Amino acid sequence: MDLELIQKDKFIDFGSIEEGLRTSVIISLFTDRRIGESELPEGETSRRGFWADSINETNIGSRLWLLDRSKVTRETKSRAEEYAYEALEWLIEAEVVTDISVNGIFEGESLSLEVKLTLPGKKSINQKFNNIIESEKNRGL
Fold first, then answer.
1. pTM here?
2. Is the distance from CB of 91 to CB of 102 less than 8 angstroms?
């Protein structure tokens, strides 16, 4: 595991780069990104979004929430991969990682996502997120 030295006042703290990245991925994927009026799904009235986006004019989070009511199809898988990549793209722009790979996986009647981040120096970090989208049957509908 890599460690990061963090200076806090007169002290030095050890932080894990890997754990920090894992946390960044979770926040990026599972914070609802604000969307435009034209993107609202039928029956939705809230554009959602992270409150600080209005202050910083940024777009934290992902549009994965738009797929909450979707059926588990190839099209939904493709959208989930696209939305996840879009949410994580800032890691490349900030030069934290050199590559991002997002792969949707059908598991029974649900869809999971595998995320692979390649760090400078070619080391990679893999994370899997199960049941990103579940079938109506599994949601109790």
1. 0.79
2. no
Residues, the chain: 141
Q: Give the CA-trace dihedral at 19, 25, 49, 68, to 10 degrees.
A: -120
Higher pLDDT, 72 or 8: 72
User: Please, what are the domains in the chain?
Assistant: 19-36+45-134 (3.10.450.40)
Q: pLDDT for 76-133, tens place per residue?
A: 999 999 999 999 999 999 999 999 999 999 998 899 999 999 998 888 999 999 999 8
Residues with Cβ within 8 Å of residue 126, at least 6 apart in sequence: 114, 115, 116, 117
Sheet containing 99-107, strands listed edge to edge, beginning at the edge strand earlier in sequence = 99-107, 110-118, 124-134
